[in-house]
Amino acid sequence: MKISKIASAVVLTMGVASFAAQADQGSGKVTFWGSIIDAPCSIKNGYGDQRIELGQISNTLLDNGGISTPRPFNIELENCSFEKDASGNPLYNTVTVTFAGGNVPNDMSMLAITSQAAGAGVRIQDTSGQPVTLLVPTSGRILGIGDNSLKFAAYLEKIASVTNVTPGDFEAVTNFTLAYQ
To answer: Is the pLDDT of residue 3 over 80?
Structure first.
């Protein structure tokens, strides 16, 4: 009986020691963040802050009046639900998008690029292929209940007043704002 108690005490001690040794095998912190917006739709996670790669574009293509291949990007909306008027028609189910950012001088439809490359800018186009003018709302798009996708594309183009494009890395940044009517 005494041996059984000693064996139990040894097993218990080993278990506690084993647990104590494993207790500090790493730790961390998870922070959840976001914002609550006054809108009929939520912006799907990952679509409020995006990076769109335009690729490695030939300066010769741009110098000869060409443009890079338009790269699609979307603003994904989710969980859209709309209030209704007295007749049962949805309210605020049309959205416009306004893009803002540093523009090329004298061209509000072209975002200026920064970094080593120079002489070109980024154009955003809507679903019909028309260039988007910065600081001007796009045409309204009617939304349905649930999830919706606002589709755009972006491409690089030489600035008209420039003789030659300078090769190098570049970046252009735009912010967008949604407005519901």
So the answer is: no
